[in-house]
Design a protein that fits this description.
With 314 residues, the chain is of the alpha/beta class. It is 43% helix and 13% strand. The two termini are 24 Å apart.
Amino acid sequence: MFLDAHSDIWTDVTIRRMAGERQVLERRHLPRLRRGGCEGAVLALWVDQPHRAAERTEEMMACLAAEAAESRAFRLVRTAAEARQARAAGVFYAFLAAEGLAAIGEDVSRIDRYYDYGVRLAMLTWNESNALAAGAVSGKERGLTAAGRRAVDRIRQLGMVMDVSHLNEAGFWEVLDRCGGPVAASHSNCRALCDVPRNLTDDQLRAIGESGGVVGVNVFGRFVSPDRPRRTAETLALHAAHMAEVMGVEHVGCGFDFCEFLPNGSPADNLLDLPDCGEAGRFFRCLERLGMSRRERELIARGNFLRLLEQVAG
């Protein structure tokens, strides 16, 4: 069983609920998640309509509340203790994350709205350059803005986990210097194995490990290998093994970021032998073949991210 520390399922749920469907997570996603051994996930509030980011974020939150009220098959949680209680009851648990804070503009006080709703991990930006920071593929080299620095401070004051997966390098190092505690890169791979801006250098990996944080491996094929035939669960396992070598296995997790269910997504975006979350067991079998012990595999599967989430405020 594993915890997927980055999932875009909520974008699909919002799209479908706005079109009139109900119990979308339970009907369309939970069977696949359970088949793959996924016991819980961090559901990202990723805005698919950036031109109306604030309004879309509110729509996503409203859809989330309605969906949770309709289903007993999953439970929104805010702490690792609540996640473990849900797991013991056989209920799928879901944390919330903000995949970018473009919706707040420069008004850092609006982060409190996310926190009050239950968001416990936050990124300053997705791929864009916004009023807080610049994304890894934005083409911008600047670091955090003054508002971005205030946002990092507020995220930490509230007890949320700072997520650096989408930041450019200048922003990354400013966050690490400023944060004063563990940070996550919820869905990033190793640049040493696949040289793309969204992946992390060994220096970045090492810094996250030294902070006490966790990095989640990502199934998006172009972040796994530049060679399509090598976009496999086995290659993804090599990313996890490299992270373990650089940071220690206690800092490696799963942030799979499956996206085949999104309007512009395709199974081809994922790995050749890992087209959706229902096949996640292949990744863990590859870790075993690489010689990782059961304990090490369990840490990667859920232990490390749950340990990180022990630190969030309730």
